[in-house]
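Quick one:
INPUT:
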């Protein structure tokens, strides 16, 4: 890997505060380091994602959907 250092790309994902701390701790070891911040999903988007993930496996009742929507913090 060291011989191909200029050809290596590593993609990491995580919570911004934790990733900032991680990047800060390894920056000296990297030839180039950059990061992209993506906005958090809204509560509505999280509900849509959950329904899509579950659709192939189970049927979500109206009550379960309501409980999930109430569980997600407002975005």
């Amino acid at each position: 890997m060291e011989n191909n250092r200029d050809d290596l790309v590593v993609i990491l994902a995580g919570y911004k505060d934790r990733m900032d701390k991680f990047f800060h701790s390894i920056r000296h070891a990297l030839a180039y380091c950059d990061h992209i911040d993506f906005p958090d999903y809204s509560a509505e988007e999280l509900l849509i994602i959950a329904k899509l993930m579950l659709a192939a496996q189970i049927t979500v009742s109206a009550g379960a959907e309501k409980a999930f929507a109430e569980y997600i913090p407002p975005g």
